[in-house]
Design brief:
Protein name: L-lactate dehydrogenase
Largest sheet: 6 strands, parallel
Pathway: Fermentation; pyruvate fermentation to lactate; (S)-lactate from pyruvate: step 1/1
Strand order of the largest sheet: 3-2-1-4-5-6
Organism: Tieghemiomyces parasiticus
Keywords: NAD, Oxidoreductase
Structural class: alpha/beta
Shape: globular
Bound molecules: 1,4-dihydronicotinamide adenine dinucleotide, pyruvic acid
EC number: 1.1.1.27
Helix content: 40-55%
Distance between the termini: 38 Å
Number of helices: 10
Amino acid sequence: MPAPTPAKIAIIGSGAVGSTIAFSLIMNRLPAEIILSDIDTRRAGGEALDLSDATFVSSSSVRVAKNQQEVGQCDIIVITAGAKQKPGESRANLIDRNYHIMQSVIKGMQPINPNAKIIIVANPVEILCHIAQKLSGLPRNQVFGSGTFLDSARLRLSVAEMLNVHESSVHCYVVGEHGDNQLVAWSAGRVGGAPLLSFDQFKNADLAHIAHEVARKAYEIIDRKGATYYGIGACVASLAESVLYHSRRVFPISCYNPESECYVSVPAVLGNDGVQHAVQLPLDDKEKAAFDEAVKSIKSITEKYN
Ligand SMILES: NC(=O)C1=CN([C@@H]2O[C@H](COP(=O)(O)OP(=O)(O)OC[C@H]3O[C@@H](n4cnc5c(N)ncnc54)[C@H](O)[C@@H]3O)[C@@H](O)[C@H]2O)C=CC1
Ligand SMILES: CC(=O)C(=O)O
């Protein structure tokens, strides 16, 4: 399906993550009018000027939002506005600060385009999806988060290196929470149709160690350089592309799961009306128990924001 030309993509929060998402959209040559918004309007203006120097590679354009109402009328609204983790700090610890920011962001852009897709990137993603959906009043399938897409990309890289194959041939997901309660669905992992765990390199592999390294990668990057942004930039550009082109690609994203009665990260099909449906991953008993723990943890926080 051809993309609407040009789609309006708003990015709220033009810090490290927001501006890198804009750069990734431009590099992916999405036919989009990218509209930056930030409480720090001077910073947003500077990012727009800098990014506009890169638009010659694509048919995208970039500018600063006229006002918040304009942002609310966009086709896709990416929300990165929020506090980020200090070295060693968990994502869950950001909730108090980022709840208030999310409230002001959603309130400021009312009335919201009833067809808009809101992509939550600020942390903690699953909890902020719940809050954004409630406050925006949009249908649940139109509000989703980048979730464990980035964690899964980290995992696939690690597996690909072990097996000496390309990452795109590794089908293995991190699910549950984009946070400390994430888990790897090892038993459902496949490479070229074969179970991941049947490969020689995985027969005696320390799976817990690999999963731990994947989960700790963000902490290590933040410890060394203060923030992560390239990976999430690439992830969000892929999500936007699947929405604009109705690609129906499967991504591990934070979406509302009726069975769990909360937002949780699972593989889901993404098209032009948002989340089409989740894919039921067959988990073994240990993975199922870990998934249930993640759901329990997410629900224990979201219930404070009902
Ligand atoms: N989901 C994921 O995989 C990832 C999520 N993140 C999260 O993304 C968020 C942003 O991270 P960075 O860009 O590194 O932080 P940053 O500090 O560079 O940028 C945040 C921006 O939000 C703006 N902002 C704050 N309150 C606002 C408001 N009410 N309205 C509009 N703008 C507002 C700030 O002025 C700032 O420019 C953090 O919560 C971080 O944890 C970061 C990396 C990956
Ligand atoms: C910061 C963050 O959430 C990440 O890089 O995974």
